[in-house]
Design goal:
Blueprint lengths: L40 H11 L4 E5 L2 E4 H17 L7 E5 L4 H12 L3 E4 L6 H11 L3 E4 L4 H7 L5 E4 L15 H6 L9 E7 L7 E6 H14 L7 E4 L6 H13 L3 E4 L5 H7 L5 E4 L1 H8 L14 E4 L6 H11 L4 E6 L3 E5 L13 E2 L4 E5 L11 E7 L6 E2 L3 H7 L6 E9 L5 E6 L4 E3 L2 E3 L1 H9 L4 E11 L3 E10 L7 H11 L8 E4 L13 H7 L7
Parallel strand pairs: 1-10, 3-4, 3-5, 5-6, 9-10, 9-11, 11-12, 12-13, 24-25
Antiparallel strand pairs: 1-2, 7-8, 8-18, 13-14, 14-15, 16-17, 17-19, 19-20, 21-22, 23-24
Helix pairs in contact: 2-3, 7-8, 10-11
The structure holds methylmalonyl-coenzyme A and adenosine monophosphate.
Methylmalonyl-coenzyme A (MCA) binds next to α8 and β13.
Length: 539
């Protein structure tokens, strides 16, 4: 047992945050929509701790934490980070298993004034290394099983410590001086970064999406209100904790409202159905609903205590929406968002939830629909959605070039989603102008897979497309052209890809052709490929 674990956990007054520590590495992100204030995520959760310290906060297996427990554990982690040299504004990367301790790690980072950088556990070591090279984290926290591989892949400058789902690991092994404990609770302003999540974007080069405390707190409060969250809610949490959906949309709504989040290790339809009774809210990506519908046990009785089911991250098929309503009596509330902006629009809690629509822009979100030149389209016409609001991120990590592509000069974010808007403001997503595949709620940027394929000896060029998949909504298909005279062995190609790309990015099918279809400008005609191969992943 590590020495520090025998000590009483630190008690720091949640609302009396200190800002006395040097903040030389801090970067504030001012923007017209981000009024300066002290509304930090940890301060908001700290207010709940003060109000209801003994209320249920997190459940995971047999473990049950009150708000006070979460505060004490996160305080200990914050103090440990400080003693390990983490300064306000430093990035702390986490590739850890889902657990209450992982939530404490997130909150502990914020309380130390650090920027939390969660990583998808499916990332292979080279993917993590590329992100670490860009983000330059002061510390990376991972599981014991991932540590050796990461240690070899990462730059020597990155310190690596471990944290297991049960709270053990080298992170908390060193002893904590009481002064260190007292030092960890750093005040943050709304325009200071709280988290950074990576996206590959259309170039394949990882970009850090910086999210400020103000982005997160404003979005959480708007959602608590819009979806009528209260302290009586018990959220069944099956999503991963490394994306906006699971970490912010799900966890924040539960915690900001003073409710309880019951964590499942991962989504598994049978286990979700087992846990639904005595929960009140469930959130999922469309694949969760498709898989739940495949279970005979999903019925009205199983959902009797539920008051809300939400879906997002990818389009929910109207057939699934209707089938779920028929089977359970619940109308799924579909909402829409993106990492760069958190939640953007939502069907109403009390009004009509329409299948196929992502509802109205949330309060304080300004939305407009424009053509390729940025001019407003005719009412009811299809165009790209652009948005502005306190939820919109201030910019990518050290990437002014990417910022210039993402924002209009007046500060509106170009979402890359093609929409139609009704006269009453209701939005319908009809497509995407960005080259992106969404598979089981996870983004796959084709260029990243193409770059990986093109790096292999036998492959001259490739085009990666998304086609309908019965389980994941869209599935990845790679169309490859061999080098002259080469005869690529697909087994070898797959083995190589597995070493460098996360499992969800792996092509579900690889097709070999002689030449890619191109237009007169030489651009690959992906639409033609999508048409040609649209049925290859159907059963
Ligand atoms: C796993 N596999 C996948 C995916 N996940 N293939 C394609 N797409 C996926 N998403 C493959 C693995 O490579 C493996 O293939 C096989 O499926 C089994 O892997 P396993 O890990 O056991 O899969 P699973 O546990 O069944 O996971 C599927 C899942 C999971 C439950 C749908 O991907 C998931 O939880 N997705 C949610 C992601 C999420 O939180 N998105 C929110 C992003 P093989 O057997 O061949 O090796 S936030 C966002 O988008 C915005 C802000 C928003 O609006 O929310
Ligand atoms: P991400 O980059 O992971 O945050 O993914 C954001 C993208 O997911 C958005 O730009 C949309 O294309 C898509 N998305 C999120 N929610 C929905 C939804 N309810 N319906 C359709 N697409 C969605």
């Amino acid at each position: 047992m590590p020495r520090s674990r025998k000590r009483p956990l630190p008690k720091t007054p949640p609302e009396e945050e200190r800002s006395s520590r040097e903040q030389s590495q801090d970067e504030g992100f001012a923007s017209p929509c981000h009024a300066t204030g002290n509304d930090s995520v940890h301060r908001s959760i700290g207010a709940v701790v003060t109000r209801t310290p003994g209320a249920c906060c997190l459940q995971h297996g047999t473990l049950s934490w009150t708000y006070d427990d979460l505060w004490r554990h996160s305080g200990q982690i914050a103090a440990t980070l400080v003693t390990r040299g983490v300064r306000p504004g430093d990035r702390v990367a986490a590739l850890v298993d889902k657990s209450a301790h992982a939530v404490a790690l997130y909150l502990g980072c914020l309380r130390a004034g650090a920027i939390y950088l969660p990583l998808n556990a499916a990332y292979r070591d080279p993917e993590v290394a590329a992100i670490a090279e860009d983000a330059e984290p002061a510390l990376m926290i991972t599981s014991t099983s991932r540590a050796p591989g990461l240690r070899a892949a990462l730059d020597r400058g990155v310190s690596l410590v471990t944290l297991e789902a049960d709270g053990t690991g080298s992170l908390l092994e060193s002893s904590l001086p009481e002064e260190g404990v007292a030092a960890a609770d750093v005040a943050r302003t709304t325009d200071q970064p709280a988290a950074m999540l990576y996206t590959s974007g259309t170039t394949g080069r990882p970009k850090g999406v910086v999210l400020t405390h103000g982005n997160l707190t404003s979005n959480a409060r708007i959602l608590v209100d819009a979806w009528r969250f209260t302290a009586a809610d018990v959220l069944l949490h099956a999503l991963p904790l490394f994306h906006v959906h699971g970490l912010f949309v799900a966890l924040h709504t539960a915690l900001f409202a003073g409710g309880c989040a019951r964590l499942l290790d991962r989504f598994d339809a049978e286990s979700v159905i087992r846990h639904l009774p005595d929960c009140t809210v469930f959130m999922g990506v469309p694949t969760y609903y498709t898989r739940l519908l495949a279970e005979a046990d999903l019925d009205r009785e199983a959902c009797a205590t539920l008051r809300l089911f939400t879906s997002g991250s990818a389009p929910l098929a109207p057939e699934a929406h209707r089938a779920f309503e028929a089977r359970t009596g619940h109308t799924i509330l579909e909402r829409y968002g993106m990492t760069e902006a958190g939640m953007i629009s939502s069907n109403p809690h009390d009004g009509e939830r329409l299948a196929g629509s992502v509802g109205h822009p949330l309060p304080r979100v300004a939305a407009r629909v424009v053509d390729a030149e940025g001019e407003p389209v005719e009412p009811g016409g299809v165009g790209v959605l652009e948005i502005q609001g306190p939820n919109v991120f201030p910019g990518y990590w050290r990437r002014p070039d990417a910022d210039a592509d993402a924002f209009r000069p007046d500060g509106f974010l170009i979402t890359g989603d093609l929409v139609r808007q009704d006269p009453d403001g209701r939005l319908w997503i009809v497509g995407r102008s960005k080259d992106l595949i969404i598979s089981g709620g996870l983004n796959v940027y084709p260029v990243e897979v193409e770059n990986a394929l093109d790096s292999l000896d036998d492959i001259a060029e490739s085009a990666v497309i998304g086609v309908p998949h019965p389980d994941f909504g869209e599935g990845v298909v790679a169309v490859v052209v061999p080098r002259a005279g080469a005869d690529p062995d697909l087994g070898t190609v797959r083995d190589r890809l597995k070493r460098i790309l996360a499992n969800f990015k792996q092509p579900k099918k690889i097709v070999i052709i002689d030449a890619l279809p191109r237009n007169a400008m030489g651009k690959v005609q992906k639409n033609q490929l999508r048409d040609r191969y649209r049925d290859v992943l159907r059963p």
